[in-house]
Structure formats: C-alpha cells, structure tokens
Amino acid sequence: MTREAAIRVEGLGMVYPGGVRALEGVSLEVHQGEFLAVLGLSGSGKSTLLRCINRLIDPTEGRVWILGEEITGARGARLRALRRQAAMIFQQFNLVRRHTVLTNVLSGALGRSPLLPSLVLSFSAEERERAIGCLERVGLGDRIASRADALSGGQQQRIAIARALMQEPRLILADEPVASLDPALRHSVMRHIESLNRDEGMTVVCSLHDIDLVTRYATRMVALRDGRLVWEGVPDEFDHATFKDIYGEEAQPASNTGF
Amino acid sequence: MQSVAVDGVLIGIVLLMAEFLAVAFSGRRGPTGLLLSAEQILDLLHYAWAAAGALVLAVAWNLFAGQIGASPGRAWVRGVPEWETPLEWNRTLRGWFAAVFIELTFFTGWLITELDLVTFLTKFGKAADIVRGLLHPSGGVLHEGLVLLVQTIFLAFMATAFAIPVAFLLAFPSARNLTRSSLAARLAYTVARTLMNFVRAVEPLVWALIFISWVGIGPFAGVLALWVHSVAALTKLYSEQIESIDTGPMEAIAATGASPLQVLRYGVVPQVIPPFLSFTIYRWDINVRMSTIIGFVGGGGIGYILKPRVDLGEWGEVGTLVLLIAATVWLMDVISAKIRERIV
Q: How much is the mean pLDDT over chain A?
C-alpha cells in the first residue's frame, strides 16, 4: 500500500494583485515523515509557496492537496479543518504580543475549541494542562504568566513552536524560522523543530537560507529561483555547482560549508 | 475628453473671476445708490455665458495644443509634452494661465471676504470693553459656573462612554484590510463608511438642535449630540488603527484553523486596544471643549449660562466663565496626554 503524500502541489502559480509573479508552475510532493527544506534567495517565492499550501494566500493557478484532501477551493469549516492539520511557524514568530505565554500557546487549540468561551480567552482545564505540557517541552514551563513580548527572540520562537505543537497537527510549515534569531540560538530552535519531525512523526516543510542548517536537518530539499522549482534532491547531492545554479554566479556561501 | 472638462472648469472660473473684478472696479451702483456688495456682484455674473465661452476656449486650446502648448487639463491627463518640459514657466501659455489664475483668485478672494485692513487697525476701541471685562473676571458667577462645569465634564464623559461600544463594533466593517475577502464584506465596508462620513460631516451644533427638539433643552440633548458625533469620529480613528496593524498575528491565528471571529479576537483586538484607549481619552477631551458650544444652543453645561451673559454684554462674568473653561480644557489636555503616554 502506498501512503498518500503529506502535501501534493500541482502547477502552482501566484500572481499578486499589481502583477508581480511570485510562483510559476510549481509541482512537488512532500512525503509523510520527511523534513523538506525549501531553498532560494529572498524573493524567490519560498514564503508564498508555504502560504499557498495552507491558503493564507490564495494561489491564482494550480491545486494543492493536504493528506489527500484538496485544500484549494475549500471554504469555511472544511478549509479550517484542513488548516488544523498544518501548523505554521513564522520568521517573526507572530505571537500575540500583549497576551500571556500561556494564552499564546492555547490559541493553537482555537480550531477545536468552542467559539463563545474562546472569545473571552477561556479554555477547558484539559487544554490548559496540555498547553503547559507543550511549554514544558520547549523548556518554558516557568514562563507561563509572562507577557509574550517580555521574552527574548529565541524564547518567543519556542512559544510559537509550543503553539504549533498545541495544534496537534500532522504537518509543520516553517517559514524561515530562525532567520531573525541570533546565530547562536538557531540550533536550539531547529532542534525543537527536528524533534517534532522525529519524535512526533510530523512532516516538516521548512524554508531556510542557511545551507549549513539545511544539510544538518533536512532529509530532502527543493530550491526555488524566480518562482520556479529549479532543483530537487537530498543533502548529499548538494554541491558547489548546484549552489551557483540556485543562487546565481555572484553568490558565495555565507560560511565555510566545505565546498 | 477628460482634459477638455478640466480645462473648461479652470477657464470658466477665470472668466467669472475676471468679470467679478471688472464689475467691482467699474464703480457701478445698485438701485439704492450704494456701491454693489460682493453678494450683489456674484448675483449679476453671466454664468451661462462663462460656461459657453469656457467650453469654446477649452476645445480650442486642446485642438491647437501642438501650436500653442499643452493646456493644463492635457498636461494633467497625459503629462507635459516633451518639447515643453525644458521651458521656464513664463515661456509657456500654461504657465501664464496658472499665474493669472492665482492672481485673480487672490484679488477676488479679497473682495468677496470683504477684507478691510484700515478698520482692523483703527477700530480696536470698541473691543477694548470686552477685553477689559475678560481680564477682570467677576466672582458673582463663580459658584454657578463651577456647578455647571461639573455637568459639562460629565456630559462629555457620558457621550464618550456611550460612543465606545458602538464605534468599536462599527470599526471592524469600516476597516479596509478586513473587508476585502467577500462581496458582503465590501458592501458592509461601503455602507459603514458612507454612513459615518455623513454623520461626521454634520456639525455637532446641528445634531444638538435636532436632539433639543427631540428630548428638550438640557444636558441630555447635549449628550446625544456629542454621542452621535463621537461615534462617527471614533469609528474613523479606530478603523484607521485597525488598518495599520501588524498582520503577522492574524496570519498565525488563521493558520491554526481558527474562525474569522477568533482571528479578530486574537489577531486584531489585542493590538488595537491601547491605541483605542488613547483615542477615546482624547475624544473625551475634545467633547469637553465642544460641549461649551453645544451649551450655547441649549445642550446644557457651562455654555448654557455663557450665552445670556454674552448677549447682555456682562463681560466680567463672561471672563470668569471663559477662564473656568480654559482651565478645565488645559487640565484635561495635560491629564489625557499623561495617560496616553502611559498606555501606548
């Protein structure tokens, strides 16, 4: 029996109002359980691709399936049910800055929470317990009552990971999750995402621009250039020539990556 | 077509202003033997002829633009033609037209608003009484003034407080960034915006007159008048704040599979509460100032006792009341600035 793909993208294209083309004819399949890195320069369409997968942005062409169900064209409750399957982690963390750490994590459960209590920030005791558990997993069990913006960048991204965990998704979409963090903190955040992949069996699609991180964490990688898919492979196949292909002749690897 | 319309309007205005000045300086007298007033001259002007003449000239200018240079309308619609761009303004017909337009506007404006520097500089004596009274406030009205000042502050407070929930609910459909997703949302945006623009365009003074005949003279009418105006003003301020929020948290909440209401509650509301509070306090401050004027026409508060004293020329008592109002406005200003500083 072949397992259905975690994500299937077919002929995806996106033209923003105003005429800027961000994606063109992108087709790819993400297998369950893999850690797929998406590479490319800024402006190459990585963010747009991730946002088209959970329909934060409506693609102008093509179709997307999540776990075998088509999300393009889905509306209302069906769209929300599909979004619950795919938690998202953002470059700028996107926490609700004025809410407490705990409320931020609890917001991951909004998709399954009754509407009226959720509007007054009220959640069941069971969900609160689960949220505390998620925070403990990312090492922030002692910061439950702090305001989210009182924490450092690395800590805020860990709250965002706890929020994603709280969502109990089967996929993680991570958009440059460590790009706005201090280099010293990148591995600590990446390791938490890796643990979602390895220990929870969640499929991860993660855009990254640091080749070091890609080769260290990804099981497979794809590269975008000017909105088109230009390369697909495993980290071992990635070499200097591929690098030039993706980033252009002018580019130099940012750090000593061994090639 | 568009350029002829623009030129027609501009040339028409120039023709009318020229005729106005010609009549004004001709020394023509009306039936009473006096020089014509500005209003009388405006009544005399040949509007239809000016419109017809303007149309002919506008068409002609557009037809011969190649020979005499682009008209203002043509330059506006299609841009300045290349051969004209290096020329100084006084080398083009358009430049001279603009110069004449500005001069005529200034002279016509001077006459229409009846500016009179001589009177302004020589007749201060009549106003001296008032200024003397204001500088020597009399204590007789102090007690009554203080009592009504309290009423004024509460009047402004109630109007503001009642405006908050209404404006809060109206602000979301009035925000452009939240109303692009569906046709119904766009419709709600248009309806809410149009309604609020209309309400805001009507002066609080007019609202006061409406409510005075509705619920009678007194502070309640003042509360209602300021309430209506505050709803419209706060809705605009609130919705502009919503339009400028960081969309990141909205995206994050939507990505959890939350419903639109939950996205508003978690992704939008926490971001806008502090600026909303700040605007609201500012609005209270404005309402205290406005309630003085509302009182003039019978909307309660300190303005209500100010009016008869102005009419009777009791300038000492007027001075007392004006000082009370000024002190309150100043105090509210300072306090609200301090509070806003803390919140944001």
A: 90
Q: Taking a C-beta distance cutoff of 8 angstroms, is the pair A200, A224 a contact?
A: no
Cβ-count burial A83-118 (b if 16+ within 10 Å, e if not): bbbbbbbbbbbbbbbebbbbbbbbbbbbbbbeeeeb
Count interface pairs A-B at CB distance under 8 A: 79
In chain B, CATH 1.10.3720.10 covers: 133-343
- Asked whether the beta carbons of residue B252 and residue A167 sit closer than 8 angstroms, the reply is no
A136-156 confidence digits (pLDDT tens): 999 999 999 999 999 999 999
Cα separation, A110 vs A117, whole angstroms: 10
Q: What is the ipTM of this complex?
A: 0.92
CB contact under 8 A, A94 and B266: no
pLDDT (average), residues A239-251: 77
pTM comes to: 0.75
* Residue among B257, B262, B266 whose CB faces A83 most closely: B257
CB contact under 8 A, A111 and B257: yes
**Which CATH number is A1-85+171-259's, of 3.40.630.10, 3.40.50.300, 1.10.150.120, 3.50.30.40?**
3.40.50.300
Work out the number of other CB atoms within 10 angstroms of the CB of residue B326.
10
pLDDT tens digits, one per residue of A88-102:
999 999 999 999 999
- Ranges of each domain in chain A: 1-85+171-259, 95-168
Assign domain B133-343 to a CATH class.
mainly alpha
